[in-house]
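Reviewers of the previous submission asked for a worked example of the structure-prediction workflow described in the proposal, so we include one complete record here. The input consisted solely of the amino acid sequence. No template or homolog information was supplied to the procedure at any stage.
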Amino acid sequence: MIRRISDRVTTFAVATGLALAAANALAADTPMPPAMADDGGARGEHHTHATNQVTVSTAQYAVPAVTLVRQDGQGVSLPSEMNDGRPVVLNFIFTTCGSICPLMSQVFGQFQRKLGADSEHVHLMSISTDPEEDSPARLRKYAQVYGARAGWNHYTGTLEASQSAQRAFGVYRGDKMSHTPVTLLRLAPGQPWLRIDGFVTPDELLQHYHQMLAVR
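From that input alone, the workflow returned the following structure tokens.
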């Protein structure tokens, strides 16, 4: 218990520093510093439990047929991006966020590194809740801060497409400032999503991933 709380405090402190660096770099249109080491759709939730203010549940979501724009400027179908055969780990962020998003992005970066060689088989996806501000170029800079490697993509697009995705996954809260930390994990199309509400640590996220693989 104490160790998990300490992990969250440490991660939050690191993320806060990264948030300030990201905001300054984006505002100045300069290269970002390297990453430091480390209401909605149908829920259908069951087997819910809470630990350390983190709630874990399972849910079924219908992936909306919307087009988003990847950080490389390529327009892509959201269902196609999610159904390419790899497990998907999903969150929703925006680049000017100074609290929740930096922490979630830091967790994603550390989680991807902890996957090691397996990282090439896992698709991390971060969808902007502020697509009018978050251009592909801005998302590329943001991704640099958190050490995003191949397999971790960031997405923007129209406001309508972003909000459709948010509603489909039950994370839409009316505006970008009202969002809460949510991480979603699914091993394959048609399988249920694991929904984690709250600040999960990289080690906990890795544990959830391995547990899902074990019962696949």
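Residues 30-51 have pLDDT under 50 and may be disordered. We consider this example representative of the routine output the project will generate in years two and three.
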